[in-house]
Design goal:
Order of helices and strands: HHHEHEHEHEHHHHHHHHHHH
Strand order of the largest sheet: 2-1-3-4
Structural class: mainly alpha
Number of helices: 17
Mean pLDDT: 88
Shape: elongated
Number of domains: 2
Number of strands: 4
Helix content: 55-70%
Largest sheet: 4 strands, mixed
Radius of gyration: 29 Å
Strand content: 5-15%
Length: 392
């Protein structure tokens, strides 16, 4: 049987003509995902946060305090943009949002350090942004520990110890740290690998809801079924096919951006990632069938679908680790295909896990697809029954 005789070609050409005439379809299919993907890629491409503005309040004015101030200015994560004469001035600058933190070098700091007394260095940090406050704390602490260790090392050497003995005294337990799979702690690898795909899947899902729901809104269901020779499966498959091809092309573009321009490591099988991408695109397209079938209302389906897509970011464990969530939240995370896609991508791209580890994730995608296909008869009934038309 030819494509024409089966109705696939007829429905496919019908959908191409609808895309040509409808600017909303063209936006959801081309302009929206392209703009979102490129913007996100270039936003996070730097990979690491640098230049967080802080200030120094130097009340000591000694050579040591100047050395600490210069060392803070040389740190990668922070940028010393001002030196204030008092804590009050620094607090006002923080309230105005000019700085995210400040370090106070108290009077008598150098004397306390060289006499062996405790020399506390107060640090004030704006904690409204957890990421920035953590980076400031880590950067300042590392700088102060480095300078403190250098001073202790010099004092021990003056007492007659050689370099190795002095270092063993200063650092009796040496931490040998190995960061696996993302050794540069790059936000490009961590965020772009998730955000680029969630942007793509959002448009896959919403465009599928829109094109399937639009048949109900406009009451063109009988024409769609007629073009598909009465088969709702053929009609849906051929109707979604142009979108499948374009969105899978966008998935390949994301691969080029991440692994090519972005330099993200690929430790496992690209074939598994490639197949996983295809399954996720199909999964989100067919989930649209479920949402339209349940609501029979384009506006409501789009609203619920948007919320469903955005909630996937939170419950996938990207913004807050699944290990820290209550059991009910972990269960809730399982209803989002993105959760399983993210596990598949990280297992192959960053960890280089065995191929067999991807099979459960792909199996779950197939379950989503099977459940969605159960709504084909429901969608067909909606296409044929006028009471489901013109609802939104």
């Amino acid at each position: 049987m030819s494509l024409q005789n089966s109705g696939i070609g007829e429905v496919f050409r019908r959908e191409l003509e609808r895309i040509r005439r409808n600017p909303a379809d063209r936006f959801l299919l081309f302009l929206g995902p392209m703009t979102g993907i490129l913007l996100l890629f270039f936003i996070f491409r730097q990979g690491q946060v640098t230049g967080i503005p802080i200030a120094v309040v130097d009340q000591d004015g000694s050579s040591l305090s100047i050395r600490i101030s210069n060392a803070l200015g040389a740190a990668q994560e922070v940028d010393v943009i001002a030196h204030y004469p008092s804590v009050q001035y620094a607090c006002k600058a923080m309230l105005r949002g000019q700085i995210e933190g400040f370090v106070v070098l108290p009077e008598g700091l150098e004397g306390q350090v060289f006499t062996g007394s405790d020399a506390p260095v107060p640090v004030y940090i704006n904690g409204t942004n957890v990421l920035k406050s953590g980076l400031i704390q880590r950067s300042v602490l590392t700088t102060l520990k480095t300078i403190s260790g250098g001073i202790q090392l010099h004092k021990l050497q003056l007492e007659g110890m050689n370099g190795e003995q002095a270092m063993a005294r200063v650092v009796p337990v040496d931490l040998e740290k190995h960061i696996l799979f993302n050794p540069y702690t790059s936000y490009n690898y961590f965020l772009n690998s998730a955000m680029l795909y969630i942007m793509l899947f959002l448009f896959v899902f919403l465009s599928s809801i829109y094109t399937l729901g639009n048949e109900l809104k406009r009451g063109t269901g009988p024409q769609l079924l007629s073009a598909g020779h009465g088969s709702v499966g053929v009609a849906v498959a051929a109707k979604l096919l142009p979108y499948t091809l374009v969105f899978f092309g966008f998935a390949v573009l994301i691969d080029l951006l991440l692994f090519g321009l972005g330099g993200m490591p690929l430790r496992g099988s690209f074939g598994a990632i490639f197949l996983g991408q295809f399954l996720v695109v199909i999964t989100y397209q067919l989930l649209a069938l479920l949402f339209v079938g349940l609501t029979s209302n384009l506006r409501l389906a789009l609203s619920i679908g948007s919320a469903y897509s955005m909630m996937a970011i939170t419950f996938s464990g990207l913004t807050f680790p699944l290990e820290g969530m209550p059991l009910i939240a972990k269960g809730f995370a399982a209803i989002f295909p993105f959760t399983w896609w993210e596990k598949l991508l990280q297992s192959q791209a960053l960890r280089g896990a065995p191929l067999k580890d991807t099979l459960p994730f792909m199996g779950i995608m197939l379950i989503f697809i099977a459940v969605s296909l159960c709504f084909l008869p429901v969608y067909k009934r909606h296409l044929q029954d006028p009471k489901y038309w013109m609802k939104s």
